[in-house]
Amino acid sequence: MAFEGLSSRLQSITRKFGGKARVTEQDLKEMLREVKLALLEADVNYKIVKDFISVIQEKALGQDVLKSLTPGQQVVKIVKDELVELLGGTESKISFTPNPPTIIMLVGLQGSGKTTTAGKLANLLRKQGKNPLLVVCDVYRPAAIKQLQVVGKQLNIPVYANETSKDVTHIAKQAMNVAISKLNDVVIIDTAGRLHIDEELMEELKRLKANIKPHEILLVVDAMTGQDAVNVATSFNEAIGIDGVVLTKLDGDTRGGAALSVKKVTSRPIKFAATGEKLSDIEVFHPERMASRILGMGDVLSIIEKAEEAFSEEEALKLEQKLKKQEFDLDDYLSQLRQVKKMGSFSSILKMIPGMNKFKDIQVDDKEFVKIEAIICSMTKKEKRNTKLLNGSRRRRIANGAGVSVQDVNKFMNSFEMTQKMMKKMQNDKSMKNMLKGINPEDLKNFKI
Questions:
Q1: Which of 142, 280, 428, 436 has the most other CB atoms within 10 Å of its CB?
Q2: In this structure, is the dihedral angle defined by the CA atoms of residues 275, 302, 260 and 362, taken in order, positive or negative?
Q3: What is the C-alpha separation between 404 and 398, in angstroms, rounded?
Q4: According to the model, what pLDDT value does residue 344 have?
Q5: 3-class DSSP state for residue 324?
Q6: 282-284 and 270-274 as β-strands: parallel, antiparallel, unpaired?
Q7: pLDDT, tens digit, for every residue of 374-408?
């Protein structure tokens, strides 16, 4: 998972330090040494680490901190604030033109994930009400056209390609005409990459930029390449000028050095982060939320946004009615399980919950939920509605159908019965309902445990 090593080290440091009632210069020196080592191990640029530590030291030695009633917590806050600043300070959005189409040009080295990112970005923007067109401007890689067409078909997003032309400027201009005629308000251009940065690649990108005048040039970099990603970002920015960065494979980068270095080195913000293999696995990069996750302070707002996207209001009302009538059965359970899965892996969701980092013994294996799905799908409709029918022979049949043991079936059924009891109690508990009704998402922005 992203930042796993760094997150573990920094959380350990801030937990040890946060409760201190009195902070000496020696305490601070020891803490900063540990933070410095953690950042260097995470493959963060040395100069950036040096500046980061220097700023924290200067602020933490101020009189306001030393005289504070909770100096330990004050220092942890300074670390968080500086981490937010290092990651970019504030969220950086796409600049959409008032006269569509908005042209977004994706650049980067071969293998960085440009083509898949083009599809992911188009999918994300469509959810925001845009009508995107994907354009193939990679005329060298044999499978480039087919790859983007496959991605477009999966997402039901149109793709423009010209298989006879090798002139990328001509192809891009044709695509603009198509976008205007089809009322596409966003055009995402997937350009060619190379295995390394060379003059020929840069010249082609410069010509394309000069002729189509893109509103956004986004550099797609593989986060797992660490400092190489920062070097690539610097080279592209100096050669053609970029407006932002999309980090791919962030879920596989356990160190996180690229994310923590790229903004400071290039002065260009990280705008999006691709966090998985699915075409829905891309999110707007929020520096404050990412800093909170790294320090184990949770990310409640992202959970709310993911839930709003995964659960429709109609489904929520249906579930509420079923709970009122105490008719929540295994079909409903399976439906809710599938909705939650849309939000991402259970382990990633847990990491966004404030305070969950304290419980190191909690392990969530997403494969267990595949088992549960198989168990429920192996039942008849009557069995799903009335679990009292599940005697020994029926449970053996279900276990065989799901490819699991009878013990697995029994374990799940015990868990489901506990869920039913809990939901019944929550439905009957008026104070609980009133408390939940009174939650305002805005109040959760600064929520911490």
A1: 280
A2: negative
A3: 8
A4: 60
A5: helix
A6: antiparallel
A7: 999 999 988 988 888 889 999 999 999 989 999 99
End-to-end CA distance of the chain: 22
C-alpha–C-alpha distance, residues 190 and 203, integer Å:
16
C-alpha pair distances (Å), 447 with each of 133, 297, 300, 353, 443: 39, 9, 8, 10, 7
Q: Are 111 and 249 in contact (CB under 8 A)?
A: no
Structure tokens at 299: 């990310």
Place of tokens 């982060």: 273
Residue-range domains of the chain with CATH: 4-86 (1.20.120.140), 102-296 (3.40.50.300), 302-444 (1.10.260.30)
Residue 220 pLDDT > 70? yes
* Maximum Cα interatomic distance, the chain, rounded to a whole number of Å: 73
Q: Answer whether residue 351 shows pLDDT above 60.
A: no
Burial (CB count <10 Å: 0-12, 13-18, 19+), residue 92? buried
Question: Please, are residues 189 and 101 in contact by the beta-carbon 8 Å criterion?
Answer: no
What residues are paired with 282 via a beta bridge?
A: 274
CB atoms within 10 A of CB 298: 23
The average pLDDT across 20-30 equals 75
**What are phi and psi for residue 441, nearest 5 degrees?**
-55, -30
DSSP result, 136-182: EE--SSTTHHHHHHHHHHHHT--EE--SS---HHHHHHHHHHHHHHH
